[in-house]
Amino acid sequence: MNEFDLIQSYFNWEITDPSIELGVGDDAALFNLNPGHQLVTSTDTLVEGIHFFKDTSPSDIAYKSLAVNLSDIAAMGAIAKCYTLSLTLPKLDKKWLEQFSSSLKESSKLFHVNLIGGDTTKGPLNITITMMGSIEIDSSIKRSGAREGDDIYVTGDLGSAALCLKKIKEGDKPSQIELNSLNKPIPRLELGSALRNLASSCIDVSDGLEQDLSHILRASNVGAIIDTNKLPLGASVNNYVKDTNDWSMPLCGGDDYELCFTAGQSMRDKISALAESLETRVTRIGTINSQKELEVIGFSGVRSSYQHF
Length: 309
Description:
Shape: globular
Number of strands: 12
Number of helices: 10
Strand content: 25-35%
Strand order of the largest sheet: 8-10-7-11-9-12
Oligomer: single chain
Low-confidence stretches: none
């Protein structure tokens, strides 16, 4: 089986979006944007041994590769549309490809996105997805919009994926809930798009809340104060913190893929109603101020969020 047979066999699915004129199989894809809209695009690479373990199932690798890119689109308040896939494989493994492509196809249907092209090559296992979406001009949620007095929110729970990773590295067996947090994050697409007229800034929490919130602060030229006692924790992380008093797990642990956003205090009721309508946990954890630094109440330890280099 050559490269073109591989693509035809595993990654040439029916296009369901009528605005996509040409997808997999040509030199490039063609798709249309509605008038008055901008293209939103984001790229993430997942590498074996860095972003997933060697024994991680092909199904989970496919899902997570798609989900982490969708999380970036959600953080901008955009609507996800289509994506390209660059797949580097150490060898041609039909069983692995069948599981990977089946999960990727199923996940694409779940999140209403279409695969429109990409590349395959031989080498150490890694997956690069470039996600594309659209948004009305001048309506995207940027990191630079936070203002003094704004509330700071975060979706979902924090730290479960990092705790799962810690357990695996230490030879402990994580729970299925913890494994799902690490391998099957939920991109907050519906909430993200609904925040366009509510949030002043937004970022997805991929490298740790402390580091990613700091990106908002730098881009907005502001500071913030957050309270560890207000951080949303799942049961296992809550127990871990009680036993160790180690808040670095929910503060600095990566792979949450939740949204951290800011909004004016006048938006509190609307955000509460939105969270209830979408049945999504949204927690107010602090306030933006003018101090140009991040103050964390209840934690004085070393902040060691994930660094790529």
